[in-house]
Amino acid sequence: QVHPVESGGGLVQAGGSLRLSCVASYSGAFKFDTVAWYRRAPGKQRELVAQMTTSSNKIYADSVKGRATISRDDAVNTMYLQMHSLRPEDTAVYFCSVWRSGIGWWGQGTQVTVSS
What we know:
Layout: E1 2-7, E2 10-13, E3 18-26, E4 34-40, E5 47-53, E6 58-60, E7 68-73, E8 78-83, E9 92-100, E10 103-106, E11 110-115
Parallel strand pairs: 2-11
Antiparallel strand pairs: 1-3, 3-8, 4-5, 4-9, 5-6, 7-8, 9-10, 9-11
């Protein structure tokens, strides 16, 4: 079993920064093919924020390009999402997900609220 757990959310003023972390605990010696951050804003569907593969290919949503950086440290099974210049529209529950061989595991989410 894989258990991703997010941390680092909270209340931030517009223009501020934060770093989300996700530790994916599991019993194994493999690397995840893909790690990703998603978010779900109030009244909206879940959307991809950023994604990163083992070959370091990265994808970002247009809404966060230039403001977000995804990274991973496989040695400690941890992934990160660094965001700056936060906007009220970034307010959402942020979820991490990890994938291997087509199977994905999701965290419970961490709330990020950006005040104007």
